[in-house]
């Protein structure tokens, strides 16, 4: 429609017959995704996908964009163009994944990539300067589009993020990104962006040289803040477009900081560049264990472009893109992405009441962690403990979490204080009548839980939900003490709560649907990825982990060093080694769980001797939190040493390894098969809703990405996602092969390795797959 | 607080004769008001049970660009000059007031209760208590309304209110680290302790902390916020420059015509007598157009020329109950009637106080925009004034943010800030409020109007509005 108006405007004064000829076809072929309007001598090209909340570079979008740009270039009244999205909160969120998945082979994907490259090359070489006006997410193909333009203006809004997340889907920026980014921001920053896929905020992007100018988001005026901000961005962008044409605004900044000049100078040496390729390659190999091809291909494309020139570079990019798109790794990561999206939705509907006041019992690591992820969501949070010291420690933890954000300039000190005003710390139950939900995070003892639930029910209002943050106690046992079991639910958080994305919600047969909906709503508000599972000892995550840890203890008892054990597990695709994981979870918790689940499931959960863990706890080796566990933790030290004192304990409980099942590979499969078997059993028993939630639970519950854990700030977030997915693992390996291995272990160790019925079914019929 | 006091007083029992008179008035109010808009003989806003509180006199020192003739003074010196000017102008005995209140924003730490220091220095009786209030740019409005509250509550009969701001000298502090070291030094007992503390001082400790005209809550400077506000309402650079030019032109005219009677002469020690504001500089659109954006660079619209400048100055008003004023033989200038304070989002609506305050105070007074004869709005930035005018003219804004059925409506420009405003006369933060009220009183007398309206915005996203009624001449 605007295109028609624009044509009218630009041709006003010319022959009317020609005008009507132009209008006629365009009325019938009205464009839906891209249109433009000429303001003065600037063409304002607006993108808006009417079928979706976000703009993607779909086939339709690309076709219309090409049409519009051709018209803009052909229109003599236009001197420059502004590219802007009409959607608040989204510029272009990337290429259309479905479009890539629809391709039958690598060659077709390569062709897609080449078409994208060609289009952006035309944009880059546009005789009329194009200003990209960015408000909201500018990711993947969207960013590649923007950096092909001559100038970029971005709003300083929190929603404005730039990035190349392709690597997280096992892909690479395939429309010129690997070639243009290094030139624009320099090799180190370009690698950082493309290999981590992280989002960059507008102010950072300005500093990096990724955008040229910033615009402040506006408050309400004669329109809503969102609408007005887009209009303002457009007005400013038009001014800049005119300025570029009039040569008032230089396209390349002449003056840079000394540092950046120095940086460019250094980069001109081949030796230095080679050193960078080598370092980056080394880091990638270390973090991804070479399990994922995309990061390596990214390095290859960049290197080819820089060292052999653009022709070779673009060719390498499109070919590698095609190859990557058809790798099983990419398919798996895309599947995981879809799964994660699915687990960020509330399939139980909107709860009747929104939780506005959340009370947490127990200000320990977990309780305070839950408070930490709740207060900043505008929910009034009550943190209750029984002792002043405990409460003080918990409140300090919440404060520290927020203060660290202040130090990183994510929030201001004022916002920190204002957020903290949502937190109330107390030792009694006063004000609990206002609570909409109570989450208990007290000691894992059924008697204490029962006492707590009775105390709580005596004070809260009838609608209040009682959630238990237990890692192993069955919820129905806890609910036995409740007067209203329909309001009782399990919410199993993972430590550290602010970094671990997973929340396992456990429903009993009595839990009402509204209670579940409410718990999921709270979890989503807290930013969690949620799996909802059935009740039973250890639920899903703990139940799968327990036999694996039991096996790990046995492996230790058989004389394997904790470091070797870690290497074996991470080498298999686990993000965290088994020994480290035990330390993170807490040896005391592990001992507790092993004992509880051992009682519930019997000899199937045997393996290592629980006494090993108990002795460690008695000696104070409770894992990271106590400074000693399998390893010794010293603040400030990144390298951790094996705790020398556990050698004696292991010596005491020494077992003789059976050489028939003790090769490195066998040890790996012993650990993994117990995990997988239990996971499949959970599906068989209906604890799990489906294999997808099972995989998501394993991925997000077993470890946290290194870049979020604060240990490493750069490189390969994707490697964190290449962690172990039990159901996909069975599909890939083949159930029959797994069963065969398990039968061999069964012969030595007994029923701990007996495959469950569902696994046997899959082994018998190779056409059965967990993931379609 | 003060308005709460007023409400309580209002609901008190009243004498029958008052009730009769007012009852009759309120029955016919609307009809009369509408009929009398043109005739300029509207009814009084006096209410039963509410004391009539009057402005007896208002004065101010000349408002000077900071760093000029007042440069070597201290804040209380300016306040003293205003108080002495008030004493001189009114012939008020130095022990005849019950209370003194001053407003200020950037406090001189040596005279944190600047009201008391200035009162003593101005020769007021030391038996008169004095306190200082702060509410950003509406500090002296707060001083005046506190005075109104004290009188309405029957605590006082005569109060001096005023405001002072001195930007030629502001407290610049040592860094927090340095302060900490210095304070520890005070407590150090041995030479060794002292030496080790002195040794701990690093070069970085010596960098000072400068005060900024920035919101604490958002860390955004006011100019930056004003630029965003102007952009949000689509106020162009030209509109802003035109309004600023209007302000300077009108101020110059008023100054030349001798209309700024509230200005007193002030003999600055060691310098000449100052008797005129020195920031009034009518320029041309071309010259103003050359300036670069001062805050949002480079595409912003707020410049040095269309913003109010850093100013030194003080003001003072004498507020009394009507009975007391008449008993003392004064001829009051105006009644101080309804007032409101409002506050809103300090980030995106920082300077929209007048938009929120105006309809609210009009409603309280039972008046409509067309009843008002004299408007005096505080001009922090030309862009801020234009944004407020556009907000008041917008149905969408009225419905979405003010909870009204339609727009507030805009004051007609022929009644608006006719003797200049903060952009041209200057804006000593703490002192502007009294200038606005005094100007309304003087303009009502001069122009023969009945009602005046004062409105102002302030840092923190706050605002104020007051209705002033002419005293029968």
Automatic annotation (TrEMBL), chain A:
Segments forming domain 3-hydroxyacyl-CoA dehydrogenase C-terminal: 538-633
Site, as annotated: Important for hydroxyacyl-coenzyme A dehydrogenase activity: 492
Enzyme Commission number(s) from the entry: 1.1.1.211, 4.2.1.17
Subcellular location: Mitochondrion inner membrane
Domain 3-hydroxyacyl-CoA dehydrogenase NAD binding: 358-535
Gene Ontology MF terms: enoyl-CoA hydratase activity; long-chain (3S)-3-hydroxyacyl-CoA dehydrogenase (NAD+) activity; NAD+ binding; transferase activity
Catalyzed reaction equations: (3S)-hydroxydecanoyl-CoA + NAD(+) = 3-oxodecanoyl-CoA + NADH + H(+); (3S)-hydroxytetradecanoyl-CoA + NAD(+) = 3-oxotetradecanoyl-CoA + NADH + H(+); a long-chain (3S)-3-hydroxy fatty acyl-CoA + NAD(+) = a long-chain 3-oxo-fatty acyl-CoA + NADH + H(+); (3S)-hydroxyhexadecanoyl-CoA + NAD(+) = 3-oxohexadecanoyl-CoA + NADH + H(+)
Active site: 504
Assigned GO CC terms: mitochondrial fatty acid beta-oxidation multienzyme complex; mitochondrial inner membrane
GO terms under biological process: fatty acid beta-oxidation
Signal sequence coordinates: none
UniProt-annotated site: Important for long-chain enoyl-CoA hydratase activity, residues: 144, 166
Main location: mitochondrion
Pathway: Lipid metabolism; fatty acid beta-oxidation
Pfam families in the cross-refs: 3HCDH, 3HCDH_N, ECH_1
Keywords: Acetylation, Fatty acid metabolism, Lipid metabolism, Lyase, Membrane, Methylation, Mitochondrion, Mitochondrion inner membrane, Multifunctional enzyme, NAD, Oxidoreductase, Phosphoprotein, Transferase, Transit peptide
Oligomer and partners: Heterotetramer of 2 alpha/HADHA and 2 beta/HADHB subunits; forms the mitochondrial trifunctional enzyme. Also purified as higher order heterooligomers including a 4 alpha/HADHA and 4 beta/HADHB heterooligomer which physiological significance remains unclear. The mitochondrial trifunctional enzyme interacts with MTLN.
Similarity comment text for this entry: In the central section; belongs to the 3-hydroxyacyl-CoA dehydrogenase family.
NCBIfam families listed in its UniProt record: fa_ox_alpha_mit (TIGR02441)
UniProt name for this protein: Trifunctional enzyme subunit alpha, mitochondrial
UniProtKB/TrEMBL annotation, chain B:
Homology family: Belongs to the thiolase-like superfamily. Thiolase family.
Origin superkingdom: Eukaryota
Species this chain originates from: Dicentrarchus labrax (European seabass)
GO molecular function: acetyl-CoA C-acyltransferase activity; acetyl-CoA C-myristoyltransferase activity
Sequence ranges assigned to domain Thiolase C-terminal in this UniProt record: 330-469
Enzyme class: transferase
GO BP terms in the entry: fatty acid beta-oxidation
Protein name: Trifunctional enzyme subunit beta, mitochondrial
EC number(s) recorded for this UniProt protein: 2.3.1.155, 2.3.1.16
Associated pathway: Lipid metabolism; fatty acid beta-oxidation
Subunit (UniProt): Heterotetramer of 2 alpha/HADHA and 2 beta/HADHB subunits; forms the mitochondrial trifunctional enzyme. Also purified as higher order heterooligomers including a 4 alpha/HADHA and 4 beta/HADHB heterooligomer which physiological significance remains unclear. The mitochondrial trifunctional enzyme interacts with MTLN. Interacts with RSAD2/viperin.
General function of this protein: Mitochondrial trifunctional enzyme catalyzes the last three of the four reactions of the mitochondrial beta-oxidation pathway. The mitochondrial beta-oxidation pathway is the major energy-producing process in tissues and is performed through four consecutive reactions breaking down fatty acids into acetyl-CoA. Among the enzymes involved in this pathway, the trifunctional enzyme exhibits specificity for long-chain fatty acids.
Keywords for the protein's UniProt record, in alphabetical order: Acetylation, Acyltransferase, Endoplasmic reticulum, Fatty acid metabolism, Lipid metabolism, Membrane, Mitochondrion, Mitochondrion inner membrane, Mitochondrion outer membrane, Transferase, Transit peptide
Domain Thiolase N-terminal: 53-323
GO cellular component: endoplasmic reticulum; mitochondrial fatty acid beta-oxidation multienzyme complex; mitochondrial inner membrane; mitochondrial outer membrane
Localisation per UniProt entry: Endoplasmic reticulum; Mitochondrion inner membrane; Mitochondrion outer membrane
Catalytic activity reported: decanoyl-CoA + acetyl-CoA = 3-oxododecanoyl-CoA + CoA; tetradecanoyl-CoA + acetyl-CoA = 3-oxohexadecanoyl-CoA + CoA; butanoyl-CoA + acetyl-CoA = 3-oxohexanoyl-CoA + CoA; hexanoyl-CoA + acetyl-CoA = 3-oxooctanoyl-CoA + CoA
Short name of one Pfam family: Thiolase_N
Signal recorded as keyword: no
InterPro entries linked: Thiolase (IPR002155), Thiolase-like (IPR016039), Thiolase_acyl_enz_int_AS (IPR020615), Thiolase_AS (IPR020610), Thiolase_C (IPR020617), Thiolase_CS (IPR020613), Thiolase_N (IPR020616)
Keyword Ribosomal protein found: no
């Amino acid at each position: 429609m605007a295109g028609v108006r624009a044509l009218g405007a630009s041709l006003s004064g010319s022959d009317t017959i020609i005008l009507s000829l132009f209008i006629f076809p365009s009325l019938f072929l009205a464009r839906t995704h891209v249109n433009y309007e000429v303001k003065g001598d600037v063409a304002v090209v607006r993108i808006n996908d009417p079928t979706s909340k976000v703009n993607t570079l779909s086939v339709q979008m690309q076709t219309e964009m090409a049409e519009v740009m051709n018209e803009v270039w052909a229109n003599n009244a236009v001197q420059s163009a502004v590219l802007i999205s009409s959607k608040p909160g989204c510029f272009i969120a990337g290429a259309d994944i479905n479009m890539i998945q629809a391709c039958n082979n690598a060659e077709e994907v390569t062709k897609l990539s080449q078409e994208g490259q060609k289009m952006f090359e035309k944009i880059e070489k546009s005789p009329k300067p194009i200003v990209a006006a960015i408000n909201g997410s500018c990711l993947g193909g969207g960013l590649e589009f923007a950096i092909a333009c001559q100038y970029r203006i971005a709003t300083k809004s929190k929603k404005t993020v730039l990035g190349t997340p392709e690597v997280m889907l096992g892909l690479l920026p395939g429309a010129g990104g690997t070639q243009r980014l290094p030139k624009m921001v320099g090799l180190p920053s370009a690698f950082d962006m493309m290999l981590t896929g992280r989002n960059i905020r507008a102010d950072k992007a300005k500093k990096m040289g990724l955008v040229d100018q910033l615009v402040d988001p506006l408050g309400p005026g004669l329109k809503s803040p969102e609408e007005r901000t887009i209009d303002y961005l457009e007005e400013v962008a038009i001014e800049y477009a005119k300025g570029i044409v009039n040569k008032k605004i230089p396209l390349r900044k002449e003056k840079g900081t000394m540092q950046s000049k120095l940086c460019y100078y250094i980069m001109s040496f081949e030796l230095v560049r080679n050193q960078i390729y080598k370092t980056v390659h080394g880091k990638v190999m270390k973090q991804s264990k070479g399990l994922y091809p995309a990061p390596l291909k990214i390095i290859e494309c960049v290197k080819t472009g820089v060292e052999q020139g653009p022709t070779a570079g673009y060719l390498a990019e499109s070919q590698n893109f095609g190859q990557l798109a058809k790798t099983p790794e990419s398919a798996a990561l895309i599947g995981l992405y879809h799964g994660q999206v699915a687990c960020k939705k509330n399939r139980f509907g909107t709860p009747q009441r929104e939780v506005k006041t959340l009370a947490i019992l127990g200000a320990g690591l977990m309780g305070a962690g839950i408070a930490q992820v709740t207060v900043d969501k505008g929910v009034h949070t009550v943190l209750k403990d029984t002792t002043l010291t405990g409460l003080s420690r918990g409140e300090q933890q919440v404060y520290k979490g927020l203060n660290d954000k202040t130090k990183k300039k994510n929030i201001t000190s004022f916002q920190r204080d204002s957020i903290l005003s949502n937190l109330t710390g107390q030792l009694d139950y006063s004000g609990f009548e206002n609570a909409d939900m109570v989450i208990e995070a007290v000691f894992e003892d059924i008697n204490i839980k029962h006492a707590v639930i009775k105390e709580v029910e005596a004070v809260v209002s009838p609608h209040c939900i009682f959630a238990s943050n237990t890692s192993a106690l069955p919820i129905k046992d806890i609910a036995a003490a409740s007067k209203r079991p329909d309001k009782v639910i399990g919410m199993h958080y993972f430590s550290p709560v602010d970094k671990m994305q997973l929340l396992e919600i456990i429903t009993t047969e009595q839990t009402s649907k509204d209670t579940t909906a409410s718990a999921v709503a709270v979890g989503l508000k807290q930013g969690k990825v949620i799996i909802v599972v059935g009740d039973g000892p250890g639920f899903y995550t703990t139940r799968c982990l327990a036999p694996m840890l039991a096996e790990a203890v046995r492996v230790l008892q058989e004389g394997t060093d904790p470091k070797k054990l870690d290497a074996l597990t991470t080498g298999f695709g686990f993000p965290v080694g088994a020994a480290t994981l035990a330390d993170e979870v807490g040896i005391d918790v592990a001992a507790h769980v092993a004992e509880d689940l051992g009682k519930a499931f019997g000899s199937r959960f045997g393996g290592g001797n629980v006494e090993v863990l108990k002795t460690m706890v008695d000696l104070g080796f409770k894992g990271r939190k106590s400074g000693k566990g399998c390893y010794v933790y010293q603040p400030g030290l990144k390298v951790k040493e094996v705790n020398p004192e556990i050698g004696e304990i292991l010596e005491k409980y020494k077992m003789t390894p059976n050489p028939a099942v003790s090769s490195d590979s066998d040890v790996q499969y012993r650990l993994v098969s117990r995990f997988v078997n239990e996971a499949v059993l959970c599906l068989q028993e209906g604890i799990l809703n489906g294999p997808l939630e099972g995989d998501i639970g394993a991925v997000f519950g077993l470890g946290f990405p290194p870049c979020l854990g604060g240990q490493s700030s750069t490189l390969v977030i994707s490697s964190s996602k290449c962690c172990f997915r039990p159901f996909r693992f069975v599909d890939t390996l083949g159930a029959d092969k797994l069963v065969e291995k398990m039968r061999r272990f069964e012969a030595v160790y007994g029923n701990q390795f007996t495959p469950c019925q569902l696994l046997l079914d899959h082994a018998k019929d190779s056409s059965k797959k967990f993931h379609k | 607080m003060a308005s709460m006091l007023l409400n309580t007083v209002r609901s008190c029992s009243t004498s029958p004769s008052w009730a009769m008179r007012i009852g009759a008035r309120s029955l016919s109010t609307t009809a009369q008001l509408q009929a009398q808009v043109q005739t300029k003989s509207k009814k009084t806003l006096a209410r039963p049970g509410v004391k009539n509180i009057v402005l007896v006199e208002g004065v101010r020192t000349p408002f000077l660009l900071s760093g000029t003739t007042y440069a070597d003074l201290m804040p209380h010196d300016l306040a003293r000059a205003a108080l002495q000017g008030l004493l001189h102008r009114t012939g008020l005995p130095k022990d005849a007031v019950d209370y003194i209140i001053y407003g200020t924003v950037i406090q001189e730490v040596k005279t944190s209760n600047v009201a008391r220091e200035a009162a003593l220095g101005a020769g007021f009786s030391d038996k008169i208590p004095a306190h200082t209030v702060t509410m950003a740019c509406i500090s002296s409005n707060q001083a005046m309304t506190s005075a109104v509250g004290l009188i309405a509550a029957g605590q006082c009969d005569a109060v001096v209110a005023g405001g002072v701001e001195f930007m030629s000298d502001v407290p610049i502090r040592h860094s927090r680290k340095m302060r900490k070291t210095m304070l520890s030094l005070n407590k150090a007992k041995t030479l060794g302790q002292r030496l080790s503390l002195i040794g701990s001082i690093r070069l970085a400790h010596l960098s000072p902390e400068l005060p900024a005209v920035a919101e604490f809550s958002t860390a955004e400077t006011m100019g930056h916020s004003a630029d965003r506000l102007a952009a949000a309402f689509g106020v162009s650079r030209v509109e802003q420059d035109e309004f600023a030019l209007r302000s300077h032109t009108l101020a110059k005219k008023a100054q030349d015509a001798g209309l700024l009677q509230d200005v007193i002469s002030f003999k600055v020690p060691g310098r000449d007598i100052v008797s005129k504001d020195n920031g009034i500089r009518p320029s041309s659109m071309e010259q103003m157009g050359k300036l670069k954006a001062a805050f949002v660079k480079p595409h912003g619209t707020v410049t040095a020329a269309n913003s109010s400048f850093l100013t030194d100055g003080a003001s003072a008003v004498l507020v009394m109950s009507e009975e007391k004023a008449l008993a003392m033989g004064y001829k009051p200038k105006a009644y101080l009637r309804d007032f409101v304070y409002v506050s809103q989002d300090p980030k995106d609506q920082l300077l929209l106080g007048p938009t929120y305050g105006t309809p609210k105070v009009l409603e309280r007074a039972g008046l409509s925009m067309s009843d008002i004869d004299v408007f005096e709005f505080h001009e922090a930035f030309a862009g801020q004034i234009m944004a407020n005018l556009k907000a008041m003219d917008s149905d969408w804004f009225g419905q979405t943010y003010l909870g009204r059925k339609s727009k507030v409506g805009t004051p007609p420009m022929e009644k608006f800030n006719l003797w200049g405003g903060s952009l041209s006369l200057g804006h000593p933060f703490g002192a502007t409020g009294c200038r606005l009220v005094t100007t309304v009183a003087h303009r009502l007398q001069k122009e023969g109007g009945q009602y005046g309206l004062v409105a102002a915005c302030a840092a923190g996203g706050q605002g104020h509005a007051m209705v002033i009624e002419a005293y029968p001449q």
